[in-house]
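Hi R.,

As promised on Friday, here is the backbone we talked about, encoded as structure tokens. Could you run it through your design pipeline when you get a chance and send me back a sequence?
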């Protein structure tokens, strides 16, 4: 496949999106902010070096060329970026490998395939009731069959695998064992060394390829080496003590930091706990050299990998570039919002505040997504942003176009409240929160907005999702409740409870059947043209991983209960 070189020479194509009532629609702009490929995809990634980009339509992923045409049809659930000329694709059957021509190389699907590294890809599947790992070659063949308990990527023709409990091995690309190691835990092979822990209670040290201990166990954590350096931790309690060593175990940066990350280009980020009493709440970062020289104060909330002498950093609610000196690049702008920036095609791509925009190097906007969109000729929705704190961000809707302005005002106040637009202090929080909305359904005078969010307490294993649907009559301003759909004398609670009970009994493995006690009169719900959907909160009747358990009931199954003369029904189905 050949790509027209003029397309690349004139201007790189950059992903960008517009907001419409169906959601985001992605296309590609040039460096002047003009759409070269019109917005049409549900998702779109950067173009890769082979001139292809992952794009999604109708819920499926494919690959487009720089004319916007699908050269690999959108038939996959997911596609990972190409590495070494191969991409991992996922469909209903499982994981497969595809080449740049779209040909599937694997003879069957697997339970897992990782991207190619050093001519091999880790794959995994169930074999004799055990989940085991092996390696595929570049043709998608099982070069090293399923046999390992764990497997890591190849580096310099070698990879570390776990054979059995307390037994690891270093293998070559043909699967031949080069050396075995009698340890309970080991990190991946890198630069001739492997971090190890003899037992789960012991500290970490390093062995060479032959298994000789070259750095005695003394660390509570030890990472693989990178560019001759490794991050270690010497903490004994909850207070971290990260430092940096070389291959002689010399402490280049003393073990005194809450966090320490290698950034490439001989730089590291060293982090001090924002709150020493609560180190899990995060760090403030400074920049140091891999030789141990501290270059900056602890000025940054986050710092990214260096690329061509620049790193993306944030402080408060701003994002900007810093140089290898650890100081902000004064010739490049400060972008409002929290996220990352990078230079591409001579302009700045800013992924900040869960949005994507482009700026020139003076900070002038080149492209920003629209902040309002029409529902029809009368009604519009404005996208409002609430960001009182770097850890709290909500995009919420404001409805416009209602004839009754007082009703419109009350609707928008309700939407703010349900979107969690609440007073938030500008100081450090104990949690992070992100909220957004989408149009779930719009027909005639009925607008159903889905408001959702995610609250993550710092230090927790996981956060808690939030979801509520708001059915609004745009003619009257009424926000309907579940009871409004049914005849006043109907026993809709029992009927719907029984229908859901049968759905649960059909698939009991997904639920906690003993916890289901039926629905409440004000049970969370939403409607579309043909059905009612009832849902429950996480943990309410199923495990957290099951999200919001939902049950769809076609209207035709409950028509005898529906008040077809009621305002709710007539708002979207008419009379």
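Update: got your reply. Pasting your designed sequence below so it's all in one thread:
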């Amino acid at each position: 496949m050949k790509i027209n070189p003029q397309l690349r020479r004139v201007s790189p194509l950059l992903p960008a999106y517009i907001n419409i009532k169906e959601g985001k629609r992605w296309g590609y702009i040039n460096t002047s902010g003009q759409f070269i490929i019109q917005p049409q995809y549900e998702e779109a990634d950067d173009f890769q070096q082979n001139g292809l980009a992952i794009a999604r339509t109708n819920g499926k992923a494919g690959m487009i060329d720089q004319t916007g045409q699908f050269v690999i049809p959108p038939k996959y659930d997911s596609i990972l970026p190409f590495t070494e000329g191969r991409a991992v694709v996922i469909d209903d059957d499982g994981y497969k490998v595809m080449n740049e021509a779209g040909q599937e190389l694997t003879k069957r699907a697997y339970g897992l395939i990782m991207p190619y590294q050093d001519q091999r890809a880790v794959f995994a599947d169930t074999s004799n009731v055990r989940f085991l790992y092996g390696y595929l070659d570049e043709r998608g063949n099982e070069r090293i069959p399923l046999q390992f308990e764990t497997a890591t990527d190849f580096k310099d023709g070698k990879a570390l695998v776990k054979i059995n409990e307390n037994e690891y091995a270093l293998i070559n690309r043909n699967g031949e064992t080069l050396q075995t190691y009698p340890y309970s835990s080991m990190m991946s092979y890198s630069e001739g060394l492997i971090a190890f822990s003899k037992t789960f209670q012991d500290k970490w040290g390093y062995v060479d390829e032959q298994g000789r201990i070259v750095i005695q166990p003394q660390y509570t954590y030890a990472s693989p080496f990178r560019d001759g350096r490794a991050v270690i931790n010497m903490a004994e309690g909850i207070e971290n003590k990260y430092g940096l060593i070389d291959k002689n175990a010399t402490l280049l940066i003393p073990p005194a930091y809450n966090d320490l990350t290698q950034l490439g280009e001989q730089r590291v980020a060293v982090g001090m706990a924002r709150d020493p009493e609560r180190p899990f709440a995060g760090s403030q970062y400074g920049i140091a050299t891999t030789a141990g020289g501290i270059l900056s104060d602890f000025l940054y909330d986050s710092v990214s990998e260096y690329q061509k002498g620049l790193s993306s950093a944030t402080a408060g609610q701003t994002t900007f570039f810093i140089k290898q000196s650890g100081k902000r690049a004064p010739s490049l702008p400060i972008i409002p919002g929290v996220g990352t920036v990078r230079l591409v095609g001579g302009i700045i791509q800013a992924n900040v505040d869960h949005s994507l925009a482009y700026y020139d190097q003076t900070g002038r906007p080149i492209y920003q997504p629209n902040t309002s969109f029409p529902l029809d000729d009368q009604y519009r929705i404005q996208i409002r942003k609430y960001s009182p704190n770097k850890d709290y961000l909500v995009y919420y809707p404001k409805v416009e176009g209602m004839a009754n302005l007082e009703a419109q005002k009350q609707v928008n106040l309700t939407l703010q409240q349900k979107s969690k637009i609440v007073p938030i202090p500008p100081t450090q929080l104990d949690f992070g929160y992100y909220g957004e909305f989408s149009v779930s359904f719009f027909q005639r005078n009925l607008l159903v907005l889905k408001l959702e969010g995610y609250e993550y307490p710092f230090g927790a294993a996981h956060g808690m999702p939030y979801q509520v649907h708001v059915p609004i009559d745009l003619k009257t301003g009424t926000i309907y409740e579940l009871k409004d759909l049914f005849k006043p004398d109907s026993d809709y609670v029992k009927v719907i409870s029984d229908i859901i009970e049968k759905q649960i009994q059909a698939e009991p493995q997904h639920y906690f059947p003993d916890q289901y006690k039926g629905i409440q009169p004000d049970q969370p719900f939403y409607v579309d043209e043909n059905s009612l959907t009832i849902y429950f909160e996480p943990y309410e009747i199923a495990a957290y991983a099951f999200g919001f358990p939902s049950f769809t009931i076609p209207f035709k199954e409950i028509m005898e209960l529906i008040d077809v003369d009621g305002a709710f029904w007539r708002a979207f189905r008419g009379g």
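One thing I noticed while checking it: Confidence is low (pLDDT under 50) at residues 1-9.

Thanks again,
M.
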